[in-house]
Amino acid sequence: MWGSRRNRGAKRITCIACGEDVRRSEAREYDKHGDRWERRNKAFEHLCKTCYRDLCHQPRDELEALLVEIQTELGSCSQETFLAHYEKLVEDRYGPLEERER
Ligand SMILES: [Zn+2]
């Protein structure tokens, strides 16, 4: 069970955004495919709470719908294609992201 007396191993994960090590229970799962229901054959990435909150400046509510839309449109494509398309779509709809990595 979760939260039993001894949090054995208190797993730590690394935030994909800032590289910080945080406790698993303090982190948020982040699935770049926006599909948190399909868990098989997947490794979720994790964000610390701070970075997760930063992400929320973006249209999180519609994010999953958006991802599904792209997937429908492109079918199976490389992650690069997917991300490029995603960025473009988000920018078209919501304007440029404030902090771009590239
Ligand atoms: Zn972080």
Task: Describe the protein's architecture and organization.
The protein is α+β, with helices and mostly antiparallel strands and 102 residues long. It has a two-stranded antiparallel ribbon. It has a two-stranded antiparallel sheet with strand order 3-4. The protein has helices at 49-55, 60-74, 79-94; strands at 12-14, 21-23, 28-30, 45-47. The mean pLDDT is 76. The protein folds into 2 domains: 12-55; 60-94, no CATH class. It holds the Pfam family DUF7562. This is Small CPxCG-related zinc finger protein.
SS summary, helix count:
3
State the end-to-end distance: 42 Å
What is the ordering of alpha helices and beta strands? EEEEHHH
Strand order of the largest sheet: 1-2
* Helix share, percent: 25-40%
Classify the beta-strand content into a percent band: 5-15%
What is the multimeric organization of the chains shown? single chain
Q: Write down the domain tally.
A: 2
Class by SSE composition: alpha+beta
Shape, please? Answer: globular
Could you say which small molecules are bound to this protein? Answer: zinc ion
Tally the beta strands: 4
> C-alpha Rg, in Å?
16 Å
Rounded mean pLDDT score:
76
Poorly predicted ranges:
none
Helix-strand blueprint:
Elements: E1 12-14, E2 21-23, E3 28-30, E4 45-47, H1 49-55, H2 60-74, H3 79-94
Antiparallel strand pairs: 1-2, 3-4
Helix pairs in contact: 2-3
Bound molecules: zinc ion.
Pfam families: DUF7562
InterPro entries: DUF7562 (IPR055984)
Protein name: Small CPxCG-related zinc finger protein
